[in-house]
Design a protein that fits this description.
The protein is of the alpha+beta class and about 170 residues long. The protein has one domain (about 5-165): 60s Ribosomal Protein L30, Chain: A, CATH 3.30.1330. The protein is built from two helices and twelve strands; from the N terminus they run βββββαβββαββββ. A five-stranded mixed β-sheet has the order 1-3-10-11-12, with no helix packed on it. The longest helix is centred in the C-terminal third of the chain and has 15 residues, at about 115-130.
Length: about 170
């Protein structure tokens, strides 16, 4: 059995990215937000983002940069740029995708804004344009998820809120 208590822990807030060159256990909780994990298991380097909107277009703030990882497009750009600086070929990465649960529901009309679905589509499109495939994904549905991500191996455990925990 894996002893997760021996690793340093980081809680990933909404709109954050985290890159680890040392083994770290990252936790986050998702609803309509998405988390993308990237890992080069051969080098033991991993990254994760917790993005809550699909695109940064139209959200530029006057006089300063927006929080990069709150948007899927800029979070992916930031993470891949970080791996390129470390001379890690994107084809070596194990990529996983989580989250994108249904957001605001309205009686008789279903999901009014479909932020979760739009976030998932933005990730898939962003990875496709980079020629990177998703190794595993658990997205959609109506329940949130809590993730535990072990950065140096790429292992992810998912607990659906009000449900049981399982490895993905």
């Amino acid at each position: 059995m894996l002893d997760l208590d021996r690793y340093p822990k980081v809680y990933l807030q909404t709109g954050d990215c985290f890159l680890a060159v040392k083994p770290t256990l990252v936790t986050t909780v998702l609803g309509s937000c998405v988390a993308v994990t990237l890992c080069d298991p051969a080098r033991g380097i991993g990254a994760i983002c917790h993005a809550f909107l699909p695109s940064s277009q139209g959200y530029e703030e006057r006089g300063r940069d927006p929080q990069v990882c709150r948007f899927v497009d800029t979070a992916l750009e930031n993470m891949f740029a970080s791996f390129m600086r470390l001379r890690i070929d994107p084809s070596q990465l194990v990529v996983k995708l989580f989250g994108g649960a249904s957001g605001i529901m309205t009686a008789g009309r279903g999901n009014l804004y479909d932020i979760g679905g739009r976030n998932v589509r933005a990730v898939r499109e962003g990875l496709m344009t980079r020629g990177v495939r998703i190794a595993k994904a658990e997205t959609g549905g109506v329940k949130g998820r809590k993730l535990l991500y072990l950065t140096h191996t790429g292992d992810v455990w998912v607990k659906r809120l009000n449900n049981s925990c399982h490895e993905v």
